[in-house]
Design goal:
The complex is a heterotetramer of chains A (173), B (292), C (284) and D (340). Chain A is of the alpha/beta class. Chain A folds into two domains: 127 residues, Rossmann fold; 31 residues, no CATH class. Chain A has six helices and four strands; from the N terminus they run βαβαβαβααα. In chain A, strands 2-1-3-4 form a four-stranded parallel β-sheet, with helices on both faces. In chain A, helix 3 links the parallel strand 3 and strand 4. The longest helix of chain A is centred in the middle third of the chain and has 18 residues. Chain A starts with 14 loop residues before the first strand and ends with a helix. In chain B, the strands form three sheets. Chain B has a seven-stranded antiparallel β-sheet. Chain B is globular and about 50 Å long. With 284 residues, chain C is of the alpha/beta class. Chain C folds into two domains: 134 residues, no CATH class; 125 residues, no CATH class. In chain C, strands 1, 2, 3, 4, 5 and 6 form a six-stranded mixed β-sheet that branches. The chains are: A alpha/beta (173), B alpha/beta (292), C alpha/beta (284), D alpha/beta (340). Chains in contact: A-C, A-D, B-D, C-D. The interface between B and D is large, with 48 and 54 residues.
């Protein structure tokens, strides 16, 4: 699917933002009401709570064509359900470290707390994440270089087998 | 007239080119049968019948981007094939969202068919329950279309409630008016105000009751059975109790199927593949198979 | 270990003939001397089929869950199996009174392929059973070997190299699900892999689908992992699956610790199923 | 004709210059049949590759057709393509026997699977006999022999330092013709090895018919993890699933290996699963291998390669299972004893 802007030839990323209904979604709404400009790269997906975001959604999104994922919720202590974001925080801290350990660029998966009144913070976050991901380019750029492969791979049977394996890896994460 | 033994054919090799690749068909008619059952008529894009098929054969219906499902062909017309689909899962749920004019994939026909040749001259007793209607309907319609080849026709059909009876038009308006054709309908549970004043009974006892009341004989008869696992078990027992020889009971099985051509391996009962050698077997053949 | 084996047989026969337990789970002998397999003994006269020696490589505890409906079950348990018992109790898979633990201190098993100590034993932190109803044999010393060497090695790599490391690992995966089926933490009645209607797990065999399966399973079990290493041992392709488990255990220890892995006690909550209001903040 | 093992490299180079060539080789800690090229070290000393050669004819994932949707409209394009000729060099007799079984499944009984057929017709199989069968090898008492492979295109009989080269089919004859520059005239005595491990299959297919309710299945069920290892490393397991990949309005439907060990293998829409228990799935696997397939195709579906025994995480041993079946009393006698 064509991902470069037809006019400018510039890469336009797809970024999925999970936004908690009570804080961040309201913040995004407020940003809209205040006519703040932010890049259209970010698609907002409303969830009841950041605690609702199963980490497997994040990996699924990255494998299904997103170049970055943002998970946003209420500030700790402000959760509408009182504790959801505390759980989310622990989970996301470990999951983020795990996917980065497995070679994901850290910028591609970010978590932020944004309250209903922080329209400006929502705008700034989206701008920042979007710029970072534009700089990284599409998800395929995460694939390792030949030098990195040679540095870690075991005895490779054949160049052809090697190509097959890593061509598949390049398609997405 | 000496009766010919019922012979179900199990070697129905029919290589129609690419066995896994469906043809594109258009939905030309949808009938809402019950709250969760719909019937669909499919036609090729150039207005033809998707395939010729025998009563009891199967078709693989696919609705990209959703899944593929195997159904018994419920009837064929001059220029269409008809399927009756109950909404039970992911794919069938989406099939129910189709509208007239939508295009879907269809491949087939697969499997063997009812022994309509060797059953000629016999009294036919059809038994169906709930969504076990389609294959029975296909065979019944064949018999009605060749009415002079068969004796008396009885159809015992049941469903959970009145609302769950499929093909009500056929059951109450069409088939009873055919010559020497008797339709007996029961429901398992009567519901206040559903307008049902007929029998309330499970299929097997109702079958025995009908058999006695109508004074039916097993002498020169052939029974055709299709339904869910419990109906299937109880009615098989009833038919044997009524005196049917296992050779004269014809059944059709269901299983999870993927390929339709006896390769993918999952629909076997013992060494027999339901999608290829089946789904139609006589009771005598079933008795010889493992209870898998 | 011959005495231990004899005692296990005696105790199994006694427990079965007294009717105290309906089955004893241990190991049986395969066709070759270095092949042992998980054996469920249900009759006292079969107790002699139980063996215990350095080739008992499998962590057998998962079998408990298949037999708990049939009465109390005895499990011959080393450190790893005993932690699995705690794991099951904490996860509400069984209650303590459903299992009779015949504890066996474990000197470490031998990998038949190499003749050296099995990798999961070389990394083992708990060789003596943490829970038991009786103990067969004398307790063994706990060397507590360093188990994060592979994590250190991978962590020291560049991002691209780490990605290459995991591409290679998941590229080899045949998705047989042996790791899941052997894992004492994988007790979901329906795994996300089999939720076909939701479609989490694609059925195609490629590195991405394997990565999805491998990483999501690793994370599902990350904060409960008892570090028995049975997933890695069971893997027919020899993938270094424990590296991502050890990495999570160490991160949990650093961030929310002290934490030494799951299954040391039989009660929760596990680190990712609880929180503290003063947890480290890094998402501001 | 003889082929010196030391000179095999030159022959392989020559074959690879003409067409795709697959040889057994190590691949990142496992072994399988890989495309020969620069840097590939063929491992003709390996008895069996870890992964079987079946993926050359029946890939683990194979696209059947692509579709695209535009509103109500649907377009379907078959993904069938002809295959260029290729050679598989260094197959073992058991693996060749497994190809015979795949042929029976995909090319007979009504429907011909053209995806398989295209690859099968393009393939030339060069089988090397086994001078030293392994401890888990039992091909000669179940399906094949370590020193012959009647359906191979070319047979290489191990004679120590060299192979005795015998073409066995027309395809093989023309291949050997082209190999002439690398072969030597002469005679050598092939090693006629036999497997140490033997099973007694004679009565097994018949006995199994009466063993549907035998306790053996729950015993194996206790031991088995019901993972898919045995089915994926088995050279003859051919069961497959059909599924799809979807990206917005287009997608592809593919078939991929499946395993009768998995719970979702037979689960039907609506929740009914005829093989929900471990026991029933284990029974299905061994019944299929040892009796159902015999009824249908007149041969065992097990070729005695020993891969499943070697790689099973729970050490389930098909040879022990065959022994136990062979030693069991026929069902009628058991019934008679029960009545007595």
């Amino acid at each position: 699917m064509p991902r470069d802007n037809e006019q400018t030839g510039e890469f336009t990323p797809k970024i999925l933002a999970f936004c908690c209904n009570w804080c961040t979604y309201a913040g995004a709404d407020l940003a809209g009401l205040n006519r703040m400009n932010y890049p259209a790269d970010v698609k907002v997906l409303r969830v009841p709570c950041s605690g609702r975001v199963n980490p497997q959604y994040v990996l699924k999104a990255l494998q299904s064509g997103c170049d970055g994922v943002l998970v946003c919720g209420c500030h700790p202590g402000d959760c509408h359900y009182s504790t959801g974001n505390y759980y989310a925080k622990r989970r996301m801290m470990i999951f983020k470290r795990m996917v980065e350990f497995a070679g994901l660029s850290p910028e591609r998966f970010q978590i932020r707390w944004i309250s209903g009144s922080e329209a400006g913070k929502f705008r700034d976050t989206v701008v920042e994440v979007s710029e970072q991901i534009r700089a990284l380019g599409p998800m395929e750029n995460d694939a390792p270089s030949r030098a990195a492969i040679d540095a870690v791979a075991g005895t490779v049977a054949s160049p052809e087998a090697d190509e097959e394996l890593f061509a598949a890896a390049k398609e997405a994460i | 007239m000496p009766k010919t033994p019922i012979e179900v054919s199990h070697g129905c090799a029919r290589n129609n080119g690419e066995p896994y690749v469906p043809q594109v068909c258009r939905v030309i008619d949808i009938q809402e049968q019950t709250h969760d059952v719909k019937s669909f008529r499919l036609q090729t894009l150039d207005g033809k019948r998707p395939f010729a098929c025998e009563p009891g054969q199967l078709g693989m219906f696919s609705d990209p981007p959703y899944g593929e499902c195997m159904f018994a062909v419920a009837g064929v017309g001059e220029d269409y094939c008809e399927f009756i689909v109950k909404n039970v899962g992911f794919t069938t749920n989406h099939l129910h969202e189709l509208s007239v004019g939508d295009e879907v994939g269809l491949r087939g026909p697969y499997g063997n068919w009812f022994p309509y040749e060797s059953a000629k001259g016999r009294d036919m007793l059809f038994i169906g329950g709930g969504i076990g209607m389609p294959p029975v309907r296909a065979f019944l319609r064949h018999c009605l279309a060749h009415r002079e080849d068969y004796g008396r026709i009885d159809f015992v059909y049941s469903a959970s409630t009145y609302d769950d009876l499929v093909c009500k038009d056929d059951l109450f308006n069409v088939w009873p008016n055919e010559p020497d054709t008797h339709v007996h309908v029961s429901v398992y549970h009567a519901k206040e105000g559903d307008g049902w004043d007929g029998a309330v009974s499970y299929t097997a006892p109702y079958l025995e009751q009908v058999f006695a009341e109508e004074g039916l004989s097993t002498e020169n008869a052939c029974a055709v059975l299709c339904g869910g696992p419990s109906l299937f078990r109880t009615c098989r027992e009833s038919l044997l109790k009524l005196g049917f020889a296992p050779e004269d009971i014809v059944t059709t099985l269901e299983a999870r199927m993927k390929c339709g051509v006896g390769k993918c391996g999952r629909c076997n009962v013992g060494g027999v593949f339901i999608c290829l050698e089946g789904p139609v077997f006589t009771e005598a053949e079933l008795a010889r198979m493992p209870r898998d | 270990m011959a005495d231990v084996q004899d005692t296990i047989r005696e105790r199994a026969a006694a427990l079965l003939s007294s009717g105290e337990v309906s089955a004893v789970i241990g190991w049986g002998a395969g066709r070759f001397d270095d092949v042992r397999f998980p054996l469920v003994v249900k009759r006292a006269e079969d107790a002699g089929k139980l063996v215990f020696d350095a080739s008992c490589v499998q962590m057998t505890a998962k079998r408990l869950l298949e037999h708990t409906g049939e009465g109390k079950v005895a499990l011959v348990a080393r450190g790893c199996e005993s932690r699995a018992v705690n794991r099951f109790i904490a996860d509400h898979q069984l209650t303590r009174d459903q299992v009779y633990v015949i504890g066996v201190p474990c000197p470490g098993m031998v990998d038949p392929a190499t003749g050296e100590t099995l990798k999961r034993c070389a990394e083992c932190q708990v060789r003596n059973p943490v829970v038991h109803d009786e103990l067969v044999g004398d307790p063994v010393p706990e060397p507590k070997p360093y188990r994060f060497a592979e994590v250190d090695r991978v962590e020291a790599m560049s991002r691209e190299e780490r990605r290459a490391f995991f591409d290679e690992m998941y590229g080899k995966c045949i998705r047989c699900y042996a790791c899941r089926n052997a894992c004492p933490c994988c007790t979901c009645r329906e795994c996300f892999v089999e939720q076909d209607k939701v479609g989490w797990q694609g059925k195609a065999f490629n590195v991405n689908e394997a990565r999805y399966y491998g990483m999501i399973r690793a994370f599902h079990t990350g904060d409960r992992c008892i570090e028995c290493g049975e997933c890695e041992r069971a893997c027919p392709m020899g993938l270094p699956l424990m590296v991502i488990m050890h990495q999570q255990v160490r991160d949990i220890d650093k961030l929310f610790g002290p934490y030494e892995g799951g299954g040391l006690t039989d009660s929760g909550p596990d680190p990712l199923r609880t929180y503290k209001t003063d947890d480290i903040e890094e998402f501001m | 004709m003889l082929l010196k093992k030391a000179k095999a490299g030159a022959l392989l180079d020559a074959i690879a210059a003409k067409e795709r060539l697959f040889v057994p080789a190590d691949d990142r800690g496992t072994s399988r049949f890989v495309a020969y090229g620069a840097g590939v070290e063929p491992r003709f000393d390996l008895l069996n590759t870890k992964l079987p050669p079946k993926d050359l004819l029946f890939p683990a994932t194979e696209t059947l057709y692509r579709w695209s949707r535009d509103g109500a409209d649907l377009a379907i394009d078959s993904a069938f393509a002809e295959t260029d000729p290729f050679t598989v060099f260094g197959l073992r007799p058991c693996d060749m026997a497994s190809v015979d079984r795949l042929d029976a499944v995909f090319l007979t009984k009504g429907y011909v699977d053209e995806f398989y057929q295209a690859k099968r017709e393009a393939a030339t199989f060069v089988v090397a006999t086994c001078a030293h069968p392994g401890r888990a090898c039992f091909c000669d008492s179940i399906a094949a022999s370590p020193h012959e492979a009647p359906t191979a295109d070319v047979l290489l009989e191990d004679a120590g330092e060299e192979w005795v080269v015998t073409p066995q089919t027309e395809k093989g004859a023309s291949a050997v013709e082209a190999w002439k520059p690398y072969l030597e005239e002469g005679d050598a005595e092939p090693i006629k090895a036999a497997c140490d491990l033997k099973v007694d299959m004679a009565a097994v297919p018949e006995k199994l018919k009466g063993m549907f309710d035998d306790p053996i299945w729950s015993d194996i069920g206790d031991q088995c993890l019901t993972c898919g290892t045995c089915t994926f490393v088995c050279p003859t397991c051919y069961c497959f699933n059909i599924d799809q990949d979807v990206r917005e309005d287009e997608g592809k439907r593919f078939r991929c290996w499946d395993s009768c060990m998995f719970t979702d293998y037979t689960a039907m829409a609506g929740g009914h699963n005829p093989r929900a228990s471990k026991e029933s799935r284990v029974r299905q696997r061994f019944m299929h291998k040892l009796t159902y397939f015999n009824d249908r195709y007149d041969m065992n579906l097990c070729v005695g390669c020993g891969r499943c025994m070697r790689d099973c995480p729970a050490a389930v041993d098909i040879s022990l299972i065959i022994d136990r079946i062979a030693a069991s009393e026929p069902a009628q006698e058991k019934e008679a004893m029960a009545h007595a």
